[in-house]
User: Fold this.
Amino acid sequence: MQRNGLALTAFVLFLLEGTLAKWIIPASWQTDVVVAPHLVLVFILYISIFIGRRQGLFYGLGFGLLHDIVYYGPMIGPYTLTMAASAYLTGLIASRSRGQILTTLFFVVVGNLVFEWMIYGIYRVYQVTHTDVEWVFSRLILPSVLFNLLFSLAVYIPVRRLFDWLHGIKRDATQ
Amino acid sequence: MFKFIGNKKILVLLLSLIVFVALMGFTLAKREKLSWPEKFIKDTVTWTQSLFYRPAGAVAGFFGDIRDMSILYEENKALKMTLSSYARDTMRLNELEAQNKSLKELLNFTERQKNADNYKYHVAEVISMSPDPFTNTVNINLGGRDGLKENMAVISVKGLIGRIDKVSEFTSTVQLLTEIDDTNNTSKAIAATVKDKENQSFGIIQNYDREQKKLIMTNIETTDPLQVGDTVITSGMGLVFPKGIEIGKVVAKEVGEFGINYKATIEPSATFRHLSEVLVVEVPGVG
Assistant:
């Protein structure tokens, strides 16, 4: 049940980020600055911080691969690699924190930054894009990270509740 | 440092890095067809997404409509004007078409030549757009079963928006014009010309400038009559895009990189955000 609940929530977020999120974000935020909604990534970072970095790694691999296949653009692999890596790294740094809201949000921002820079780096190396670093940082990475920070703040309490609830179910089942 | 990570983990890390680099390199190359697991996952997931995209668009459109209420009256007036001129143009078009047909018969055109401009349009609905800012792939709800093939042009009501990149059974992926790039081997350049100067003007559009949000047209001859304000259309010479599809308007013309020819900056006619319906152009006998 715990695994199903987490996977189901992540899958619903995956469906929303390609459909609803594109309509909710104003068109000017997708042209003047580019805001990329990474709802699944935020959720996986939470998994990595609160449940464990190993779970985060596997969810990152799975949903990254799903993203790569569904939105197959130039190649398969960048999202699988970066989502797993950023989730694991975030879990690694966050492993000693006590789970207060501010530190958690800070780790989510770090995870997002790692993710965005890795994606940009891979695309740059494989010559998929050659947009200027400065432009990418100011127009694309910074707005996206801010937007995802807002989203992570909005879902912080529901996510904690969900994790506690799923944990409770698991404990009941073992007893 | 090594105690912190552990030898086994480093081995796993390095091995997985090798696997990923190989995977990305392999999938980056031109692939003829998608494998069946990819098709299966893509079709099922995008089908589920289609349940979300339409209602989301409808809700967003409703709020947009309220915002646009004030300009509705003006718009209505302008639309009535264009409708009357449309009726006039249709009459003229019918007449010219009949004339064109009789002239073609006089000149003994073959059946293939006659059908060359007789495009078939497939109306497709957008299912989802990638959240990835670098590769804005768009999934549409028509696939190989509906007769779609790779490299068909995709247009919206306003103009060219891209081409079909990958085809699955029930869905396909569109590569938008904003992704074309001359160093990326998955993108294709567009042979373009100027409307009403089709025989004198020619250029190649193979780059999109992300920072200016404009298309760059290069290889324009020095004797070319292209001017700022002209409408750029596809020429059909590249054999990827059919001819006569509107791309955009010229906003600047300057000397190209080596000073031999000119390059022009083009403002795309179509918008690439908040897409809901697109048309896929099928050219009979090609592809």
Summary: The CA atoms of residues 82 and 115 of chain A lie 6 Å apart.
